[in-house]
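Protein Record: Sequence and Backbone Structure Tokens
======================================================
Tokens: labelled as protein backbone structure tokens, with as many entries as the chain has residues.
Question of interest: how does this chain fold, as expressed in backbone structure tokens?

___
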Amino acid sequence: MNTREPILHTVPIDDLRPTQMTVGYREVKQKREEWRDRSDKHASEYLGRHMVPAVLGPKDRYYLVDHHHLTMALCEEKQKDVLVTVIATLTSLSRASFWTYMDNRAWCHPYDAEGKRRDFDAIPRRVADLVDDPYRSLAGELRRAGGFAKDTTPFSEFLWADFLRSRVRPKLIADRFTSALERAMKLARSSEANYLPGWCGPDLD
């Protein structure tokens, strides 16, 4: 049986449309450092291992459905293009139908930095305009620290961010991030979090 190879396109980052409103700036910073750590001769290899999935939408525009943090990091590092793999072509849909379809497929996340749902028009039109959600940064660090497992559920880190939003004070995140992470780890091991994707169970020690 033949395996179909993905069709790749080189697309300017400035032409990519986000499908969410926020990112965790802390995670963006880490990805910027990761990009800087690779040697110049390995740039193409790095980009080839980090293809960006997108939907081709109305007016032949590319809409990101993942890797917003990486794409923003590359944008801030003055990388002009990324490799895009198109997972669906929806060019025939009207704008309203397009967003309804994207919403029903869990290919967009129109929630602001306070976790409140907004109109699709509030989603930025450029990756560079994505805003910071400190709780998304906290959720990302929590996963990397082993607080929960990586999961295929769409926007799973945002679900964890919303769980933490009402339980960890924003001032603690801003002033003492390590303490905020410790607090988040205890919460992640509690039965309160057992409905969330990637939950690893309570700490029985």
Notes: The beta strands are 8-12, 16-17, 22-23, 52-56, 62-64, 81-89, 131-132.
